[in-house]
Design a protein that fits this description.
It contains eleven helices and eleven strands. The two termini are 59 Å apart. Helix 1 packs antiparallel against helix 2, helix 3 packs antiparallel against helix 4 and helix 9 packs parallel to helix 10.
Length: 439
Amino acid sequence: MRTVRSAAWLPRGGGRRLVVLLGLTGFVVVVYVLVVRGGGTLIGHTDSPSLALSVAATVVVALSLAPVQAALDRWVRGPGDGAPAAYDILTRFSDGASDGDSSEEPPVRMARLLAEGTGALWAQVWLVVSGRPTLAASWPSDADEATTVPEPRPGARDATGSDRRALAVAHDGELLGVLRLQERPGLPLSSVEERLFGALASRAGLMLRLAGVRAELERQHRDLEKREDDLTASRERLIGAQDAERRRLERDLHDGAQQHLVALAVNLRLVQTLTQHAPERATDLLARQGDAATVAIETLSSLSRGIYPRLLSDKGLVPALLSGVTASAIPVTVTADGARRLPAAVEAALYFCCMEAVQNAAKHSGAAAVAVRLSDDRDTIHLAVTDDGTGFDPDSVHGAGAGLSNMRDRLDAVGGTVTVASLAGTGTTVTALVSPEAV
């Protein structure tokens, strides 16, 4: 931790500035005495000040005033301050050198050098990532006094707090971030520190651009990882749903169509046996097997319709939707603009997504009507299912129900997306987007 920069024998704030002012005044007086008076004595011109010597004294004062002021600033702070010289700070800031941990991130190093060079209570580096200001580093690392976004004002001031400084950093006319620091109580920045602050901000453009690019890449990497996790979870749910569907089909086949076919086979073998001993009974039993075969066919047909609508494969999405919504408990209108035949996987995903949304509206929304709109702009297929029900507050719903998860899983499988927009009292709209070319 840095030591406080005031010497114990000097008063804080204005007392130190008075010492510096008196020192500068004494320096100017000494220069004029030595150059004008001393030089006049040497050349034998003591009756009145020499114009040439006065000009020379003025030049010496002008050239030496800033270094003398910096030396006086360092002196009044005391030997325990530890604040590096401004030139050293600028050099290390510009060339990327670090006198600390070699693994120190650039924004952290920038914040540290800014705090050390200006003697600030704390310093921060903000980056603009994806158009939003983001706190990249603070020094000291536990300096969390200010988490609000900086608001730079003229004079390097920050509108978010008193005794707070902020300077915007730009490169090639693009805002890249903000350097911000907090002055110590009663100890504002000296003129040297103000110039150092401005110089650091003017040199930080390229470094902040590189840091911003890195932060953006890290954000995209996190987004891709989340997307990968979502896809993995979606595929696991699909596999689970497929297994459950397979078990349901096995049960339905065993309990339904298989029983009809087994009975048909047994009866036919019985007919074969009765043909020799009781022909009339065999004829009557054989006649009834036509009805049994018809029941088996109807059972299989009903089962197949539950798997994949025949109309969807034969006629396409719009006819299948028009037919499918007729069984809804509430009126459903279907409007289609420019619909065309799509890949089978896309048609199936949109069909079952629409049926799920209509079913949810009928069960939960209290709606009087549902409108289905399908549009095709050649690049993207838009499906919107809108009800006029009570709606809900999405923030009050934790997680997604099985219906919404099923819709998302189906659209994820074909590279599409599903969104739900709803407000209490205004109904709900389920929107599915998919690009046929992506399948």
